[in-house]
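Case study B.
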Amino acid sequence: MKKLFDRVFDGADEMYALAEKAIEDAVAKLGENTPLSMPNTAYHLANYLSYTKRQVTTISELKDAFEEAKTWRVREQNLSAVFRTGFGTFMAAETIEACKYAKSADPYEGNYHGHLSDAEVRELGVPLVTNDIPGFVVIYGRAPSDEEAVDIIKGYQTRGIFVFLLGEIIEQARRLDLNMGFPVRVVAVGPDIWQVAHIISFVNRAAMIFGAVQPGDRYELDEYTFWRIHAFVNVYEPVSDIVVACGGGAIAMGFPVITNDEEDMWAVPKSLIIQKTTPDFIETSLEARDIKLKITNVDIPVAFSSAFEGEIVRKADMRIDYDGSRFDSFELVRMAEAHEIEDHAIEIIGPDIDETPEGERLGVGIIADVAGKNMVKDFEPVFERNFHNFINCAEGIMHTGQRDIIRIRISKTAFDAGFRLKHIGEILYAKIMSEYESVVDKCSVKIYTRPEDLKTLRAEANAVYDTRDARLLSLTDESVDVFYNCILCQSFSPSHVCIVTPERLGLCGAVSWLDAKATNRLNPQGPCQVVTRERVVDPEIGIWEDVNENVFASSHGNLESVSLYSIMVDPMTSCGCFECICGIEPFSNGVVIVNREHIGVTPLGMTFPEMASMTGGGVQTPGFMGHGKHFIASKKFMKAEGGSLRIVWMPKALKDLVASKLNVTAKELYDIDNFSDMIGDETVAEDPEALMEFLAEKGHPALGMDPMF
Amino acid sequence: MTFKREPQVFGASITEVEFGTEGASVVFGGANTLPLYNFDAQAKHRALVGIEISDKGPDRSLPELSAFYSGAESLSDIASRACTAPGADFVSLVLESADPNGDNATSEDAAALAKEVAVALAAGGKPVVIQGTGNVDKDQELIPKVAEALQGMNVLLLSAKEENYKGIAVAAVTAYGQKIGAESSVDINLAKQLNVLIAQMGIKPGSYVMNLGAAAAGYGFEYISSTIERVKLAALSQNDDALQMPSITSVAEDAWAVKEAVVSEDDFPEWGPREERGIEMEISTAAAALAAGTDAVILRHPASVKTIADMVAALA
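Model:
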């Protein structure tokens, strides 16, 4: 078997020989001093320019340049020699083409596109750089059949990929009258492999125009083509050496080559891929070049808009009722490896809606498998929680609950419009792929309706939920490397910054550490940024130098320091969206917490709005602090001042909400049983005297603690 | 005790952005002191004053404005006349006709108009600002077309927003070498985010300015002024290089759209002539925006242009 490197070198020799002949012929016919240029470009012969800095304008200059190109062809058994030879092959190819254009301004007479003008480079370059065109493919050779040729071209077209065609596939497409041309994003470049020079010229000019890559700067050029030009190559068998030589150049630029030829072919991961099943070229190619397609519409037979989010499907109108309260049901997002998932596969296991009698109640299980290079397991629940919003946006579909207590109702109208279970899959696919595009590369959905499947799968789902809950419990401020900030509220509270940690969620209650992390990954320039916590000043009060630096910068200089675990020393500021306010109650050495919903007065003699006026606006008010409801049971709540033991009063509704978790914390930290029973509420006291009486009676620990100031 | 003068000069400065062609170009930015604090250090460049024209022509119901443009019928005549307004550093063309909620002219037609005006302005020695329609979808198509039509003229194109910055930035700046304005709506963080995103498209500082939003004085202007001020402070005192682009404020559209500039003298005789009121709205808004720290203002009426230019010169 011939070595791949040798195939490149032999192929390059063939191309160079052709180029040599082309020059000799041009000199003989036109003379050495004949001007030579490609039409409508300011970049001369762009491949020569970008590789050698030479500005070729006459046949004799081309001759000199070609002499230099010959030095690029080095038969050495190493990768850099192969890559250099690949580039040399492109210069040789450009030489052949330039000689054609020297003889005629329009050598292809409209049959093939040939050279691309600078205007075309700009026109195509802009959407390529902005990703509005996700990438381009170069297809060379003869597809197994004319029909398949058209299928693959159309397949790329429908995915928004720009198509350059070289060789016999052009005739195949023409036989079936495929519409081609720049506007439809399919360009028949030329009949031979050496017209590849025009495509490479396009790439090199794009790098010079859009990447400001200087001629001769190989490093920058390679960086640019690898990171910014999302191109790849499909070649049908048989693949000759001269094509392999060009492939070497393409791979050097970061463009993977996908072929069905096994003869003397050596697979190189991510670069040279053998795919015997030609109809799978598209899928294989997109994955190899990491191209993600934009999902713009949700393919379902009913309307899809947030306007339908709150819509209720009543019993009389429902075609089917998937009821998780009576039948095994669940929804689950699982992270998987890319190769385990067939993108956009939607599978219904069990009877669909039309195979179920009208008005029937039963169970349903939905599993979405996702994969992505930037995906992390912690995002599973973040996506899953949004199933509710996604599914609800479909007209005539109602979704409530989460995990294994879901309910989905589908109205008769939606059913009559053709809505089936697979459309739930379509909704989830489209929304997951578009909302989380920066972390999800592939997604598939399975929907189960058979009771026996649901029983086992629900048990499996429950095991996953348990693992996640355990993970949440194990997430402590000490166990993570970084915190996040959140400046979402700065539009109306310009100097406020939240520092979100695993044990201290945002004061609005809506941004947990996991949410902030997900927001940061999904939108790296967005409102949540990484805050390192490396230079510790005081772990008890919660002061870090790097946290302070971040707070200073992100509050635009308004705040200099914040302590995360104290209400007295530089407490965290509030925007005004806090769920709760905590304030010092001086008689008991304790604190009172009041939630936004509570309308009565607190033992401090103030209502929530009155306390809010002292707390919001991004100012630090020692003794007052805004926070989320779930912070109350945190072990970090006012840790510097003695923790949750200081809580002496809460509205009853709030106390009931947090009691169980708060009792666990109190038991664990202070060995106190049923701590919440010691906390007063509006039913026992709304003034300090009555409260003190109650606390004394209960033996509240705060009474024996040191004064807070 | 004697007064000791301590000039407040920052270690950071606003990036300079130049637009226009040789002999007809202006530079803004460059300052390293607070706005108009020329007593701390002489600013490198004066704040710029631009005069706005529309491709639908001036409002000829205003007597003074109509007199200024009298005899100028074609768009290029109007543009040439605008060049003669005393104090105008540049001319800003609004492509109003392309607005999808109005005449909805095609991007190609609007770009052709822009070309016509740009040629007239080059002859008149004034650099060009082109304002799009403000409609994100239309501008996404329109601005690249204009950028292409005006290749080599180094014009400033307003504006790229969060929804359409990618195509506009890459086409206008990278492909056709123009300057752009990054428009955000009255929020320092959104302004910064957009600047960072534009930088990530490979656009270098010096190629774009900020358009932080606009409102007429008395109509929520305090949000604008506080945003401009905070952006400038962050740029200078914190050396935040993602906020060091100069800013441009389009005063004309808002100033001429508020009640004071719209209702007729017949309805409110005690308010006096409408034209005078509009001019005053422009002047008070522009003066306040400059005091807050904007580096360029766009005004519609030659009288406002002259007054503000005189003010800038007097404080220089």
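The mean pLDDT of chain B is 94. The remaining cases will be described in the next quarterly update.
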